[in-house]
Amino acid sequence: MAHHTMEEDLNIAPPPQAQNLTSSMVTKKWPFLVTKGRFQLLRNFRANLQKVIFGTKLAVLFPAVPLAVVADFYSLGRPWIFALSLLGLTPLAERVSFLTEQIAYYTGPTVGGLLNATCGNATEMIISLLALYQNKVNVVKFSLLGSILSNLLLVLGSSLLCGGLANLRKEQLYDRKQADVNSLLLLLGLLCHLLPLMFRYALAGEYASIATSTLQLSRASSIVMLIAYAAYIFFQLKTHRQIFDAQEEDESEDGEKAVIGFWSAFTWLVGMTLIISLLSEYIVATIEAASDSWGISISFISIILLPIVGNAAEHAGSIIFAFKNKLDISLGVAMGSATQISMFVVPLSVVVAWTMGIEMDLDFKLLETGCLALTIIVTAFTLQDGTSHYMKGLVLFLCYIIISACFFVQKTPLIDDA
Predict the structure, then answer these.
(1) pLDDT in tens, 209-252
(2) Spatial separation of the C-alpha atoms in residues 290 and 144, rounded to whole Å
(3) For a disulfide at 360, which of 112, 201, 353, 369, Cβ 3.0-4.6 Å?
């Protein structure tokens, strides 16, 4: 029979001294219970820090982030701020892709795929919006054009090259249907870029208000491009999912599992996006100073350097899958990202500029539009037969080198269209 004290029977709480005594006795008797509860949060944070920050070989570049903030705070020199911000963006862009993959394990492949594609281009979208806010229209055009060129020539080219060299004795096959859909959308986007350019040359000298007409045509084309991209999303996720199912099946074959929790990944993602926004603001504000100091044209920095940093995640992931002879995933990453920039981010920037009262059109000038046209045509020809080898990747990669050299020697001043 259990014995009760009078205080227990009358439900009288023990005095504070007794509570403290009890607590101290528990601590002495079972110290691991208190220690476990006290340090569990710290352990979780350390584990997440280990996986998120130190889980990449690019972690050596993370110190550039606080250095960029310090350089801006003490006004150490605008070219230094630009260089440190550019270095700091590289691991951040790669880690954002990692975090969206972790979230995709919980949301499923459909939402996860969309989230991955969108967050993979987060750096370009943030830079574009900040440049628009500062009325630097040409920086927006150059950086978005460079992202398309980088995905189609550098990312896809190096993936096919490395995949071909790693699988010399194997036949590399991929599903043409997915590449065909992306090529069609890229050609539609190219048409929307060509029309304002041809419009300007065809009607030069005939109409005084040609700039207004070009702007109206660009805004109408942007709305059409957004409708086409919405239809593409519906096509990909609903009516013709079987075309894109191979990519999801290949990804599920690896049997990988999430290494951090959903809310942890979401919190890290929000934090890194805010840091990317800060560094992007530094880049947009100091790009002219870096160009003058280094003697490199704005077009080369915007079209070549910024997209290489922004596409670090796509580049690494695409090459890894090409090494594993999973070209469908490599094509999905590179072509999907280029399609999203061309058919969603570019027209969205035009519409956002429209709402802000800024005159941004789809006329990317003759040289830039010509490079875009040749890139899309060369890529479409490369992917037409459903097989791959390292020579195809080498040709695409060399095309990117030539275009890079073209913009490196081009010394044109930055003249905003606003």
Answers:
(1) 777 888 888 999 999 999 999 998 888 777 766 666 655 555 55
(2) 19
(3) 353
